[in-house]
Amino acid sequence: MVRHAQQPGEAPVRTDAPDADILCVDLVRIFKVLSAGGQGVEVQALQGLNLRVEAGELVAVVGASGSGKSTLLSILSSLDQPTAGVAWVAGHDLLTMKEKERVAFRRRSVGFVWQQTSRNLLPYLSASENVAATLAITGAARGAAARRARVAEMLDLLEVTHCAERRPAEMSGGEQQRVAIAVGIANSPRVLLADEPTGELDDTTSAHVLEAMRAVNRELGVTTLIVTHDPAVSEHVARTVQIRDGRTSTEVLRSTRVDEHGAEQHVAEEYAVLDRVGRLQLPDDFVSALDLRERVRLALEPDHVGVWPGQRPTTTSDRSSDHESARVEASVPQNHPGGTASSEDFRDTAEGTETTTSPTTEEEPS
Ligand SMILES: Nc1ncnc2c1ncn2[C@@H]1O[C@H](COP(=O)(O)OP(=O)(O)OP(=O)(O)O)[C@@H](O)[C@H]1O
Ligand SMILES: [Mg+2]
To answer: Which residues contact 184 (CB under 8 A, 6 or more apart)?
Structure first.
């Protein structure tokens, strides 16, 4: 694990801070809005979200529009306060932080990259001046020579040295975002947060910007969290967390293995996220494939948990099929890896199949 040395000017880190650089436990954010009829209505943007990002990790959070991505990032960057739960970033407790600590946190502990290039860079300053302005405001590099050296180092790392004297309007969208990353990391923050950093870019330019973020993460060890609606981001990061209805639901872990012929294989394994009290979200396609509704039946097996459609109380004939299904549940131990029955067998005999908490891979679909 990468441990972070306290930077000069950085707000002191709490001694009881968690090991992880980002930790959210049961995070809730409720907005109160007025309906058309003038009534107060609650919008639950985050509904008990859990997320842990270790020091030095590069993680993407992906989700559909309205799933709570920007709400999460606003809280992590301390622009917004959660309604309930636990949120720690870079050793700071975001729920109890006082104003002075909040200012120091935002100046030195975290860097930001937003979707709108206009929000990242000052339009009347060149790329060099934008980076230098951050260093001057935060006091990260003392003296003109140290600042010049740091500016050159950052622009070189992001491969935008050729833009040094250009203003944002004289750069492409991808160049502007790479300069924005240089601004975000110039003061050596412990955590870099990015909200849809490629939202205004085409596919090729997006890939270039995501690779730049990966290089920054690798070279500087800065813990990086990218939120985006674009699932293609998962090709550029080792860990992608899916957010659904204000909760983290599944995670994809990517790794590289060497096969028996010595060739490199890229493997993606998908996991459901399990919270502290044992809750998990079944993927939409699993739910609709088995028409799971209201209640399901569970069975604990030596190495997995089975999930079946629950009882639907109606007619006598339904009751006989429920009886059949109960019989299958009793015979389930055969249906574990190495057993004799396949999930197809269960579908054929009793409308039941199982969802396991074991990982599935792209190579070996279960
Ligand atoms: N300030 C606010 N007041 C009321 N409701 C809000 C506010 N901000 C967000 N919401 C609601 O919270 C939910 C999550 O919004 P959020 O902006 O976090 O989604 P998102 O995942 O970033 O979506 P997108 O991909 O479109 O940017 C939405 O239903 C949104 O309407
Ligand atoms: Mg958003």
So the answer is: 111, 112, 113, 120, 192, 194
